[in-house]
Amino acid sequence: MADMVSIFMSIGLNEQKAKETLKNEALSSTLKKAIEQARGLLGSASIDKTAGTMLYNMVTRLKDSTRLSFLTEYIITRKINSELQLSAALDFIKSHPQENLDRLQFDAACGVGVVVTPEQIEDAVELIIRKHKDQLLAERYRFNMGILMGEARTALKWADGKIVKNEVDMQVLHLLGPKTEADLEKKPKVYFYSVFLWHTHNPFSTKKKVHKKWKNYKTEGYVVTPNTMNLLKKHLEETGGQVRTRFPPEPNGILHIGHAKAINFNFGYAKANNGICFLRYDDTNPEKEEEKYFTAIKEMVEWLGYKPYAVTHASDQFQLLYDLAVDLIRRGHAYVCHQRGEELKGHNIPPSPWRERPVEESLLLFDRMRKGMFAEGEVTLRMKMVMEDGKMDPVAYRIKYTPHHRTGDTWCIYPTYDYTHCLCDSIENITHSLCTKEFQARRSSYFWLCNALDLYCPVQWEYGRLNLTYTVVSKRKIIKLVETGIVRDWDDPRLFTLTALRRRGFPPQAINNFCARVGVTVAQTTMEPHLLEACVREVLNDTAPRAMAILEPLKVTITNLPTSTEVRVPDFPANEAKGSHVVPFSKTIFIEQSDFREVMEKGYKRLTPDQPVGLRHAGYVISVQRVIKVRDHSLSLCELEVTCASSDSVEKPKAFIHWVSDPLRCEVRLYESLFLHKNPEDPAEVPAGFLSDINPNSLTVIGSALVDRSVGKAKVFDKFQFERVGYFSLDPDSTSEKLVFNRTVTLKEDPGKI
User: Fold this and answer.
1) Catalytic residue (choose from 250, 299, 639, 681)
2) Whole-prediction pTM value?
């Protein structure tokens, strides 16, 4: 095993990833073959990390193992050297299953040997700009620049996306000039509650409308009994006609992005209609519930900006629910059954031989259940009704000899969801029971039970769940990710639990805005993460103060700087009235390694030996005088010596770069998608299961980054825009000796992102 781990680590996998790969026998075997074939092609040379990552991605996605050596050869010989080419290669192989591939066709389909020159990029972008010139001039920077990028990527399929983006930005700037004050004025935003207020008139995008708060009986499927109007009248007297909703999570896990939609809809609908919303814990399964989940759920609801009218528990009503169960038996609508759990699974359950048991006998047996005179699974209380999905006589009570976190050992029988949910809604006088589509099959049982007990009956409305691609939200699967060490815990920033999103730096306003934009429909909604990230950028652009940070430092000595000084930097350059901070400026500064090139390349606008560059906010332009390298066989770059001149006294440089002086050292964590495929739980996409689909580059830790001193007093979860780098949030792992920042999102969506 140790040998295999070493082999996998030799291509760039970390130890944890290598060990996890070993758990998948088929994947391990195929990856080992690919590595052996690659080594055969390379001879004595080793497999570099780029090729190793490409090999790993190819093996995890290749369904036809007969093509392994073919693709390995293309990767190792650099004929395929990008994710875009690899995807095209896999698609070609899938659509050409014949034994002998036409290499010329394959090469053409995968862009093998295609070199897109800067001139070609420039010409193609120029044509696209010309096509949209009139609209660009009319709308200026309000024009949807994504249209330009989309057409450019279509025309330049194999070009580097970042270079294409830079060229588009440059030509747009050349056509329109710098942004004016009018360009910087923001469009009026549609805020969350107004969006939800519209949706509450027609939340399902159909002709149906949610019932008015006193018109339950007009809802399709609602059962009207001789006592319905009296019960509604009493309900109106008790509530004053107020809209009442509830958010009813089970306290057996951490809330995720799907729950954010439920929270927004329930609390948002109530707020839009001047109503109230309860936070009710559905705590009827003591085996899975923990106090930490209760605390975390309430914390996340409040973090999203909502204050429950009251925090309640299903367990608050255990005695009343028991009394109602006794009443249900007396009315002839429930019976004690001795069928075992395995007999009750599925939909073709044989009718219970105890269905017509005498009422008095069921009452006696139910009392004995309550007193702990049966073993777990030996008996249940079942309701005499057929659900919409055909399931017959659902269970109302079962025995569990597990102490409850609130009631201790008082109870050994616990009510089920099918029994508890509608009764708690009735007890709390809920007007709109809003739940996701999978509960539609329980709607008839919801109405039946309230009517069988002659209680006020709320109305259940279903809406589609919110799902995201490139993630899993199942409690069981997240636990597996934690147990295998793939993620640290439920709040690992690569997950889409709400605690993870908070730790990564997602503002609650952005999550609420995202839910509002998704809206509420009957159909399940599946969105891509970049749409949520766009909402995050929109909020952070207005709220995250600017700072300067260097992830890969290059030391620069300014030989002619007269004296050390301080520079005032605006917190929000577009609105300097919002404040500023001061940073030191001395002879020794640090810049990003990528902001210097020793050899000039066409289109490169930053620092070279022949090209000066401006320093943001400092008022200086620097020019290279000397390039200092390490005196060993590598001759790697270690320092620059430059001279500076006031920006007023020299020609305006082509670019301005960020820098730090006398900085703080910090750790920076960069996150990418946790999974390689859009739907990691789909066997058609990932046959080996979601654990085989982990992106080996989902976390990059930079331990020696530098940041300016303005962030020195930041508190956990404080957010910043590191100029030209991205948005970052201070992680709870930070100490007084070392700050730790999580990258929340990049400044702009990466067109080459997974």
Assistant:
1) 250
2) 0.71
